[in-house]
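Before going further, learn to read the protein records used in this course. A complete example follows; check for yourself that the lines match position by position.
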Amino acid sequence: MKFLFSSILAICFVGTTFGQDAPSAKETDSIKMPELVMVFTKTEGWRHKSIEKGVQTLRELGRANGFVALQTESSEDFNASNLNNYKLVVFLNTTLDVLNDNQQRAFENYIKGGGSYLGIHAASDTEFDWPWYGKMVGAYFVDHPEQQNAKIDVIDRTHPSTAHLNNVWMHFDEWYNFKNLNPNVHVLMKLDESSYKGGTNGENHPIAWYHEFDGGRVFYTGLGHTEAAYDDPDFRQHILGGIEWCLKRK
């Protein structure tokens, strides 16, 4: 990891000095290191075809907004010395049991120490035997109907992940039904089940939310199944707003 940080600093240095005189030592000290975001994409169940597109999107958002998104599929990266390098851990369409007991404890300690978590879509289809995780994410996946358009009611537009949206957002995706909904999360968007077929949560069908949990910040969105979603400017801004909130920029 020391090599990783040295490489990032070198990139910043070269990008800053190319075509001009080298900065002084004092100026070099003032170069701000970009914030690191881990993008975890391990799957033990269904693997979404959109994972690679999602990783690409997060990298593009990072380059444009001052953070570095680093993908991993290795559970071994969930240890204290490595996790402490990251301001945020994203579970991007992970599925089923992806961490062992020691790795789970390391991640719990990371959150308790002020780390942040962002879950996208199948992050709620993950770690069903780890109650702490389910409470942190805010719900567990149950099932879904066929992919289709649905009406999203944006009930809170004060959050950076929803401030760009209108009160109603029509979107095509795979719409999850949930169980074990955590009543303490702050819901941002709900599905209108009358607008599509197959919803089973009724009038209270949250699809994106956030909360502060056990010392850290947590954001989850149920959107993000399809590759096309990651080309949607509204969805990209939705994800970026969640990241910036998790990074405590907003």
Observations:
- Residues 175 and 197 are 10 Å apart (CA to CA).
- The helical segments are 2-17, 25-29, 51-65, 80-83, 101-112, 131-137, 233-246.
- Residues 34-246 form a domain with the Rossmann fold fold (CATH 3.40.50.880).
